[in-house]
Amino acid sequence: MSFKVIPKVALPEWIDHLCTGYRVVGPKPLHGQHIFSDIQSAVELDLGYPTTVIPPKKYLLPQREDLIRFKSDGNQIHVEEVIETKPTVVLGIHTCDLHAIQLLDRVFYQGFSDQHYRAHRENTYLVSIECLQPCIPQSFCKSMGTLSVTDGFDLHLTDIGDDYAVDIETEKGAALLDGFSAVRDVTDEEYRLFNRVVSEKWARFPLRLDFDITELPSLLSVSYESKLWDELGERCLACGMCTNVCPTCYCFNVTDEVDFTLSAGKRIRIWDSCQLDKFATVSGGHNFRSSRAHRQRHRFFRKGKYQMDAYGLLGCVGCGRCGQACLADIKIVDTLNDLYHRHANNREQERLL
Amino acid sequence: MSAKPKVAFFDFTSCEGCQLTVIDSLQTHPEILDVIDIVCFREAMSEKGDDYQIAFIEGSCTRPSDEPVMQAIRDRAELVVALGACAHLGGINAIRNRFDLDDVRQYVYGDKAEWYETYQARPIKAVIPIDAVLPGCPIDRREFVAALKALLQGRAIQIPDYPVCVECKLKENICVYLRGKTCLGPITRAGCDAICPTYGDGCEGCRGLIPDPNIDSLKQILSEHGLNPDETLAKMTLFLNYQTMEREAADDDQENG
What we know:
The complex is a heterodimer.
Chain A: E1 2-7, H1 11-19, E2 23-30, E3 33-38, E4 64-72, E5 77-81, E6 88-93, H2 95-109, H3 115-122, E7 124-129, H4 141-144, E8 155-159, E9 163-168, H5 171-177, E10 184-185, H6 188-200, H7 216-221, H8 228-235, H9 241-244, E11 252-258, E12 264-271, H10 292-311, H11 321-325, H12 332-352
Parallel strand pairs in A: 2-6, 6-7, 7-8
Antiparallel strand pairs in A: 1-9, 1-10, 2-3, 4-5, 4-12, 8-9, 11-12
Helix pairs in contact in A: 8-10
Chain B: E1 6-11, H1 17-28, H2 32-35, E2 37-41, E3 54-58, H3 66-76, E4 79-83, H4 84-89, H5 101-109, E5 132-134, H6 141-153, H7 164-170, H8 195-198, H9 215-224, H10 229-236, H11 241-256
Parallel strand pairs in B: 1-2, 1-3, 3-4, 4-5
Helix pairs in contact in B: 1-6
């Protein structure tokens, strides 16, 4: 839409301005890591954060959320939908997480769109930030093609020294700057500086996959019987940390809670994980993914193939959170490279056949 | 609605802290008393009734004379629920099961050791069949309340079958391993809302093992985080000794035959 500049010295004023009309959340330090959390002033905000424990998807799909309230009067059950949302500005979203939100949008809007996700999404203002330095050793955004964005945000910030360059993509984004006097037009020199900053950053980021990511779905398709899955299964704790910190995982469980009248209560949903022992247990008790090896394989196939088949986007954005969280040191990069070196030849053979 | 179910509370070898949590939940949820009739609860009231449908038992079985008392409760109650780590797992009482019992008695009771008939500590399910378990040291108040509702609805009590890490991560706690400590969260049953890691301490496993825990992998991780085999064993035998010894016996059986 348009391109502006916010002087860094005016950031506190902008945050104060936003706080008058919106819930404002952003990355804050906590015990040596960072989490997205509510902020009241710019001093709490750390836009230079490496990564967060949980991605900002929690504002679109909360960890635990009431869906409906119900009450029975003996004859009839009364159901009332519960949608609790307020205008929320998420500041400082890394581009990997923004790519993940694009996948979540496809998942939750396609077919029967999810009214709760939709309500949060429409009430959420996405302010992303250009990553200029690699964040954590486990990240591999450049290999996944998520080191930059062209759309999907409302505002996109780029640190150009004394100022943030602001790409205003949507009306919602423009609204965040309404009445904020310090935002101004970009000068030619600032625009040149912006171009230099975003082009020079690429060399700082390593390519960590040993193959081109477009080959991933076909690599996985010849790796289903790989011994590697058993090796991962030996190490995996099935603790679900990898999926719970993942920006693209969206599985949830739905349960009812009643009060002591036993005739009224609420239906809630809570994040679930395909890595947990009972996730794939069905009526009758059969568990069709009872081994950790099969569950890990399922996770990698979701990320590298199934999402692409269903939604046209890969299910991994290379944020590296799962590799950082995993106590057993299972990392997507290492696993995919290992698969490539073991099985890329199989693929050649299949092609020849 | 039918008459209120009659409920009784009993305790064996324990600190009775789980029953304190029950009393605590009666304060936060006084409506519980509108829907059940408590007929026996030594820690909270003087009256003693022996007509009840639901028995909650805290504590482990640690001496022969506990057995007929537990059996009598089982005979009277339609449903028996183990309340807390001692009833569920033998609790920390079962630490002694790794040692020679004469030495243990001597250590605790000195020259009066022979007055006491204590034997290996066991969870109550080793003595009588039970219908449900509320794990933890102490039990989780919300889980107790949810369990009561389930029983009143005629449904089975549901406790989580996934590890503490799930609840911990959903709360967005910083992993205690990243804070330089160790934790049994990856193999321990959730349901406590990860209360210890939330306050910066590692999980000690009071809620028992999840189904199919990957203990070998966790031991490797504990070692990478600086625990020697003795320290790892101490961790695995604080609340988990009964389960650990069961697993050791099963491994021995497998090796021998």
